[in-house]
Amino acid sequence: MISFAEYIWLDGTQPTQELRSKTRTIHHDRLSTDPKDYPTWTFDGSSTYQATGKTSDLLIVPVRVIKDPIRGNNNVLVLAEVCNQDHTPHKTNTRSKLCQVLANGADSEEALLGFEQEYTLFDGANPLGWPEIGTPKPQGPYYCGVGADKAFGREVVEKHMQYCIDAGLCIYGVNAEVMPGQWEYQIGYRGFKDDTLDALTICDHQMLARWLLCRTAEAFGIVVSFDNKPIKGDWNGSGCHTNFSTKSMRDPKKGYDIILDIIDRLAKKHDQHIKFYGHNLHERLTGLHETCSITQFRYGISDRGASIRIPINVKEQGCGYLEDRRPGANADPYLVTACLLTTTCNLSWDWAENSNHTQSIKV
Q: Quick one: how far is CA 238 from the chain centroid?
């Protein structure tokens, strides 16, 4: 049986990394989602800002395989890490940094995450639904809106959601966002009894969902923007709010006290986290449009204007998770998770050495 395998990896574009992919044919007896069943491949790193022409070959090593919902049949999507010729992680390989944090002790906390990925759909120079000249009516009716005058691009959103389900990704939901042409999907822990998720799996699903979103939009001639502030002025920016919990935070006996302790640790490391939470984050974290200023740190119960929100049900139950509202739409999920685990588990920040502090991702 001959199938297509689409290899997907992160390039070296700065200040915001981009996703690349290419296709190869695979001969196998059955459909497999085991990365070990797929060969390491090479690519031209000099064309992806990751190598020079004299030593251009870099390796893409399979780490996560899912069904390809676009091609269907027995075709697959292969998420791959970029490695040097000696098989060590390339400097742009942020997934390896999260693996390092997990191996240093964070894995014992059994962290769960949920990424609320906001994005904006563009048709040419303007977001969908915007007039060629001027601006649409002010924000208000668009969030979770219904109707052709309020929801723009739903056909892309619905198709993407179905693709995620067909591929087996842990998608939770979708909704129209505050600015016209702006949407959100959620990837992560859903509470389903059959979900076997961990921090690394959820981050991989988030990366694959981003790739699928842009491939879906591509078929409609639409461009996806993960810019933190796609439209300047009195319009909401785009974030990637990150819901985060550890097994101790989920403990009914002591969870809430642990959450407050972790928030105190996050406050002390605020500046360190901000460095890894997305490019041009200052344009979004202004203190307006449901954000806290980038220069401040505060938390609140049910407060969407805080850096960290404690959901009201978490306060009532005495355990659960917190929402870090600081990460931007172009934030790297591997780096965001590495930051949260490093601070939560009181680990070394050695993994952050020689990292680009404005590193983030777009497709």
A: 12
The residue with tokens 């870099």 is 58
The residue assigned the tokens 């809430």 is 256
Query: How far is Cα 333 from Cα 189, in angstroms, rounded to an integer?
Result: 14
Q: State the DSSP code for 302.
A: T
β-bridge mates for residue 15, sequence order: none
Q: How far is CA 78 from the centre of its chain?
A: 17
Q: What is the C-alpha separation between 55 and 58, in angstroms, rounded?
A: 8
pLDDT surpassing 70 at residue 361: no
Contact 143, 152 (CB under 8 A): no
pLDDT digits over 203-243, tens only?
999 999 999 999 999 999 999 999 999 999 999 999 999 99
Please list the residues that pair with 77 across neighbouring strands: 6, 66
Q: Which strand (E) or helix (H) includes residue 213? A: helix 199-219
Residue type, 351: W
Structure tokens at 294: 């980038």
Contacts of 285 (CB under 8 A, 6+ apart): 291, 292, 293, 294, 326
H helices of 41-93, in order, are: none
CA dihedral of residues 116, 329, 258, 111 (deg, nearest 10): 70
